[in-house]
Sequence to fold (289 residues):
Amino acid sequence: MAAGFSLSGALRGMFAKRTIDDATWEELEDALLGADFGPDITEQIVEDLRGKVERYRTTDPKDLQRMLREGIEERLARLDPTLKLSERPAVVLVVGVNGVGKTTTIGKLSRFLVNNGRSVVVGAADTFRAAAVEQLATWAERSGARVVRPEQPGQDPASVAFQTVELAKRDGIEMVLVDTAGRLQTKSGLMDELAKVRRVVEKQAPISEVLLVLDATTGQNGLAQAEAFIQHAGVTGLVLTKLDGSAKGGFVLAVQERTGIPIKLVGQGEGIGDLTGFTPHVFAQQLVG
Fold:
């Protein structure tokens, strides 16, 4: 994809034309492929729009723009993006490969919850990386959350998770966010580790959400890397980081349709406040214009 690609920019000229013609459909297809919708979804969207244009007998590109926006919103809204955090404590496991922005996402989510009047404790259960523990502690402190660190280097991650939930129950803390490892020597080792964390936590409290963090800039490659988590970790929601809505917006729809798992949060910057709930209507509006 060319640097600086923008779907809304690519579509702007097309929708400003006087009429819908053969070139319109080619331009639309190129724009959707350029925004990482992938060939299958692009073909489905274009076919659906051709049918609607014919049915309503319109030649106005503005109608096409509205239909495209509504069609994308409808697809995105098939799954419920609401975070399920009604239990007390509400325990959230955050999973994903190293480097996708897992630790910063936890810091941002912690800040979001604290700002909404919730008490939060963060468990640094990625004990294989000392730097991850320090980074998470820094983010947690910035957000106003408490943090449970390993008592010694390389401590069993499940025991850190256990201590975090134990603290929340003892002190009446409402939200528990647990960071987990993103890489071990073998994929099966990592999944076994996550299964152990789940078992230990569930002895004390139900798990409200398992959020899988994906780096939107890596597109389909990132999704392939994450498929083991989807298969084994009981993922309930997706968090997309580094999301430039104009460039990689199509990946949002592609990943939700391919996994059947709703996108619940999106991160669009480096700041601690740059994490928002996912709203299909707003996202489709930003994407299409």
Q: What stands out?
A: The chain has two domains: 7-76, 90-288. The mean pLDDT is 88.
